[in-house]
Every structure is written in C-alpha cells, then in structure tokens.
Fold each of these.
Amino acid sequence: MLLVGLGWLLLTDFLGLLLPWMLKVGVDSAQQGAHRQLLLAAAVLLVGALLRFGTRLLSRFAFLHSACRLEIDLRRDLLSSLLCREGPFFDSHRTGDLLSRCTNDLSNIRTMAGFGLLILLNTVLVYLLTLSLLFSLSPSLTLLALIPYPLLLLLVKYLSGRLLTASSAVQKGLGRISEALEEGISGHAVIRSYSLHGVRCDHFEQLNGEYLSSSLKLAKLRALIGPVMALIAPISTLLILYFGGGRVVAGKLSLGELIAFNAYLMQLAMPTLMLGWVLSLGQRAMASIERLRSLLTPLPSTERLRLAAASTAPTVEIQRLNFAYDGQPVLKDLSLTLTAGSLTGISGTTGSGKSTLLQLLAGFYPVKPGEINIDGQDLTTLDPVEHRQRLAVVPQEGRLFSGTLQDNLLYGVPGADTELLQRVADAVCLSDEVAAFEEGFSTRVGEGGKALSGGQRQRVALGRALARDGSLWLLDDPFSHLDAATARQVWQALQPLLRDKTVLLVSARVSLLEMADDIVILDQGRVAEQGSHVELLALEGRYARLLEQERLKQELEGLA
Ligand SMILES: Nc1ncnc2c1ncn2[C@@H]1O[C@H](COP(=O)(O)OP(=O)(O)OP(=O)(O)O)[C@@H](O)[C@H]1O
C-alpha cells in the first residue's frame, strides 16, 4: 500500500514540475506574441492541475490507509503482548498509563506513519526534482537561492532535541491524566461515599495544570518552528529577484525563465514549512515508540516442556518455597504435597500468603527452579499456556466480563452447548435465580458483573471454572460472599464433580474444609498446622479454635 502511495506521490510531484515550466513557456510565448503556443501552455497547465488533483488524492488515501492498518496491527500486538505478561508487570504498571499508551501513543504513531511520512517523502521528492530543474535553469542562481538553507539544518537539529523532551513530558502527563480518570470513574462510589469529590477534583486540576504547562511549552516550540522556517523562503526570493532580475536586464535569462525559477523556489517553500510540522510530529512519535517498545518487546523464550497427560489430575509438590513481593517475604520455606485427585484445604490468618500461594501455582509470578513440581516436572520448565490449560482458577474477586450470564459461564469454552450451561448453573446452585431473571441466561451482567450480587458473581465465577473442566483446581475463598448455609449447599453440590481432580481450596470458613484429605493452617507464610480434620481436632490447636469460633458465631447469628 505504501509503495502504491509512493508511486502516486512521485506522479504528483512530476506533474508539479510541469506547472512552472508551462508558466515559463506561456510567458515567453506571450513576449514573442505566439498566441497558439500560449493557449497550448494554458491547456497543458489546466490538464496537469486536474491530473495532479487526482494523483494527490490517491497518494494521500494510500498513505493514510497503510497508517490505519499499522495502528490496528500494533494495537493487536500490544493487547496480545499485555495478556502474556505476569503479575510483577501489572504490579509495576498503572492501568491508566497502559490505556494511554494503547490510545494516545498509538495515535501519535499513526499520524506520523500516515501524514507525517507522506509529507516527509514528499519533501524529499520535491527537493530532489525541483533542485535538479533549478540547476538546469541556472546553477549559479540555484546556489544563491540555497544560501539560507544550512541555517535551516542547524535550526532543525537544535529544535528536534528540545521537541523530543517536551513531547515525552506531554505524553507522561497524558498518562497520569488517564490514570486519574480511570481511578475516578471506577472508584466513583468510594469517592462519593467519602465525600472526596472536591479533593479528587483538586488533584485532577493539579494534574491538568501540569499537563497544560508541558503542553504550552511544546506548543511554544512548535509555534516557533513554522514562522522561523517561513523566513527562509523570502530571503531566497529576495536574492533571486535581485540577482535574477539583473540577468534578465542583461539578457542572459528570459523573463519566463525567471518567473519559472521563482515558481519552483516557491514550490520548495511549502514542504520546508511542513518540515517543521513533521519534525514535531516525528519527535512525538519517537517518544511514543519509546513508551511502547518496552511493552512490545517479546518475552525471553526458554525451552519449555510439553505436558505428558494434562487432562489427568496431577500431583503437586511444593518444596521449600520462598516468595517475596519487592523484597518483602510472604511465603517462607513452605513445603506441601497435593496428591493426585486429593482435596487440600488451606486457612489461616489474613495476609498469611494463601492467595499468593495460589497465584504461584497458577504461574502468575515466577518461582525458583525446584520449588514447585507438577507430576515430577519443574513448573519453571513447563509451557505456561499448556500448564494453564489444565487449571480451573477461581480468584478471590472473580472478575466477570460485560456480556450475558451465558457469555460469562461459558467464557473458558466459547461455543459450548446450552446443556453444559444448565449443568454448570445447577452445580453452583444458580438455576433458580437464573430462572427468576426475565431474560434467563441472556441477562446482561453489567461491567465487571455489577448487575449481580456479590454471591451471584462468585457462583458465576465458580460455574465458569467448572465449565472449563480443569484437572487442577485452585479455589481462593470462592464462598466468602455467600451466607454459611448457601456456601455449604454450593460446596456439597460441587464436591462430587471434583472427585477425580486435584483441588486446593482456600477458605476463611474452616468448617468447609472438614471433608478435605489434608488441611493446612498458614501463619505468616509458614505451615502452622497440617493434618486431617480428625487429627487437627485432636491437636486442639489453631484449627480447633477457628472451628469453635465459627460454630459459636453461627449459633449467635441463628439466635439473632
Ligand atoms: N501484588 C502484591 N504486591 C505486593 N504485596 C502483595 C501483593 N499481593 C499481596 N501482597 C502482600 O502479601 C501478603 C500476603 O497476601 P495474600 O493476599 O497472599 O494473603 P492472604 O493470606 O490471601 O490474605 P487474605 O486472607 O486476607 O486474602 C500481604 O502482606 C500482602 O500485603
């Protein structure tokens, strides 16, 4: 597409050369009283102008078309690259900033790749073609006309550095504004309930102020470029008028040639002016490319093992697992074995590292070689995509996606039949509520599932995992939003379906762990107690206390 555009551009610029030449022929013919030649020159001029209109249109369309395709390709690569990133990446990048890169930065690159590139190539072509014609008309006059141009080059060099710095500052500011907007909109309920409307607006005002001052700085620089460059054309014209006029008087140059010379020189003026604009555009695009480069850099690929039998329940061995966020230790020397097809329950104090353990098993954060083995294979050597294909993960806040209940329940198995949908809904005790919705499974859940209750959201997230039918289940407190009776009912309905799976269930409600083959109580990243329900009761330790507390709480709630 670019090559086609370049072809049309070349034709446009060739036709551009014809026009001043016809002016020369016309003026010289008029001076000699050759009426027919004058008419012919005028006719060629008219046809040339019309043709140029067409070729210019086609060249622009081709360049803009290719830029749009580039933007689409880059956006697709960006999303695909973002979705491959692990937990640490998302911990260190803000959503608003990432959104700004996927919108504002891409738009800067598209503008440069479309109009910017068109103007740049046009400038090069016009300069090459026009200069060769100018030289053929009068080499000495051409050299005179070019006197101011080295000044232009120096100016371009000086301004480009300053423009790049100013553009980066503007784009960073835009990233901060997007971030504040994103947080303001998604956190609107908290902001209003804490009456922080004024505070947030003041903060936004401050960010806007910073953005304004960096934008003004950039605008001043950009405003300066055009007028400074516009000075160059008149200097050249002045020199040509004085020295060229002298030659016409001396009879060394025809009037037509002087007029054509000046017209060609004028043709250089526009691209020269546009060069300033392209320069600032180019610097903005360079700053954007820099911001996108880190996101688009492919992750280092290591030779990963293919899974032997991903569909059978695996045995997971955790050996002396240590993990820290930013140097802050969370899991310390943790060792645990989940035998194939067993149910392991985990409870413990808040912040003891339960969710972290699940995230590590899902491969969201890197672990050291040998710390986690699945079916005897080191997790760090496994193909992450294949590893995740056997997972059924229910995170603490099971995020739903805009769409219908059906879309969400079958999210992991698009295109599955409605029979599966009904089975899944039955298994997570959601069928009665779905039947009560006017539109049944076609009910829209709203952004993030906000049209559903917390308990319904959790059951949809459970159903989504069930439909996926993984062999390693990682459940992170999936019943926390359900009342004790419903939680027990859902868990009892679910258990028979998980019989041949390896399941790790984190639950703050220890009573749900009674049926587990192995129960682990975590405390500050270490195993505080481990055993079966009977063994831990006999121990009369933390587990027994937690169970008793829960029983008393339920009795009190019952009395109330
Ligand atoms: N992405 C993160 N970046 C930095 N620190 C984190 C991150 N996620 C968790 N932590 C910290 O790690 C510790 C363990 O958190 P984790 O969520 O694993 O605990 P938990 O046992 O699941 O807690 P809860 O029962 O409250 O859900 C906490 O101190 C928490 O502040």
Amino acid sequence: MKEYNLEEHSIVKITDEVEISSTDLQVYYGNDHAIFDASLEFPKNQITSLIGASGSGKSTYLRCLNRMNEKIARVDGKIMYQGTDINASGVNVYEVRKQIGMVFQRPNPFAKSIRENIQFALKSNGIHDKHVLEERLESSLKEAALWDEVKDELDKSALELSGGQQQRLCIARSVAMRPQILLLDEPASALDPISTSKIEDTLDELKSHYTIIIVTHNMSQATRISNYTAFFHLGHIVEYDKTKNIFMNPSMPATSDYISGAFG
Ligand SMILES: Nc1ncnc2c1ncn2[C@@H]1O[C@H](COP(=O)(O)OP(=O)(O)OP(=O)(O)O)[C@@H](O)[C@H]1O
C-alpha cells in the first residue's frame, strides 16, 4: 500500500446543528495506538457514514461514541453530547446508552418473543404501564418498518424471523428507548440485497427523528444513504465532508485512491 502523509487531513466544519462531536480523541489497545487525534462534528437528524479499509479504526471510533470501548481500551479526548463530555466522571454510562443506541453487524435479538425484545429494556427502566408498553411496541416496530410483517405474531420467537427482519427488530429495540442518536456498525453486511435495501429505506425514514452514524464497507451504500462521510485510514480521519464531495471530488490522495479501489 502507498504511504500517505497522515499529518495532512481535510475535515469540514459543518454548518448544520451539531448533535455530537469528538475532539482530539485517542484510543489505545494496550500499547497500540488505534485512533489518532479524531475530531469530528456530526449533524443532527442526518446520516453520517464512516468508511475506510479493514482495521482503519471505524468500529473503534464508533464504539467510543457511547462508551462501548471503556472496558477494552483507553480513551482520551472529549466527546461532547448536549453540553456534556460523556467520558467525564459522574456521567452515568447507562444514561448515555439510553440516549445513544447501538445496532451491531450481526442481528442479536434475545431468545424471546418479538414483544419481549422490545419491552424488556423498557420494563427494566421502570415502564410497566401496559398501555405505554403496547404503544411503544407498535410505534417502534412501525419506525423500523417491521410492524406490517409481524403484527399478527408478536408472541412468536424473534429467532424465527429472517436475518433482515431480526436486524429491523434490533433497530426497533433501540428506538423503543427513544434515543437521540443511533450508531450502526455495518448493520446490513450480513444481509441479502433485498433486506439491505429495506434497512436503507428504514434508516432514511428514521433520520427525521434520529441522528444516525453508520460504519459501512459498502461505498454505494454510503453514497445512497448518507449526508456526510468520514474516511478513516490507519486510525486517522483523513477526510470528512458532504458525501457527494467525498465521492465526486475528494481532496486527499488517500481518499481518492480508496474510493477508486486502489486499496481496501
Ligand atoms: N478489542 C481489541 N483489542 C485489541 N486491538 C483491537 C481490538 N479491536 C480492534 N483492535 C485493533 O484496532 C485497530 C482498528 O480496528 P477496528 O476494528 O476499529 O477497525 P475497522 O476499520 O472497524 O475494521 P473492520 O472494517 O475490519 O471492522 C486494528 O488494528 C485492530 O486490530
């Protein structure tokens, strides 16, 4: 692979309202420095894609945004959300994760009914009113575009759903908590093209209510769904801009080489 000057980068300041941002974020796994000086601002109610070759640090960075890394890595730097640094002492990690939900690469529903998958976390958070629980069940499944397919079998095991339906159930489970931000780590990479397209349509609908940050290896997907894109290389954010600029007119040689398939 060609060597690039990683001291140089091109990161736009966004003009839209910022929902969450990182400043000079560093992540270390033991002695390995995995993320270098990552400063980014994410626009509210829009979709941002994180792209880059395998091992470039996309998932590590994403996981920092709701403190999923804190047991496995050392994280320095600030992540500001609603005026608070989420890593500051005294900040409750469970509250952070209620506001900033996460959907993983492999669908991971609980081995419970569809209804329980949605209502379990709500009940654990003190919501026991049956009317509220049923309303959240229906609204979340509708938001994740799954309601019409499952409304007559809500007590069926989630494990009997297809992979694509399971992933939409995981999205519904996240939105049931009424977060502000949804983080998704390659949510469609294990799915067929039709299920992928349904997930993309769902995300497009969801962005009017949620700020969405998605890791994807699929550059056509980033082009189709995201407003902004950040390109990662060897733990550095090399370029961040509106998606159309990243793909039509990249500023940095590494971005240009990556999107034209020279490596990755
Ligand atoms: N739990 C971990 N322990 C130690 N090192 C890790 C851990 N997770 C990731 N790394 C290292 O951190 C670097 C970034 O990995 P990361 O998974 O964030 O990259 P990525 O761009 O998301 O890759 P992929 O696209 O393959 O998922 C890599 O060198 C990886 O080996």
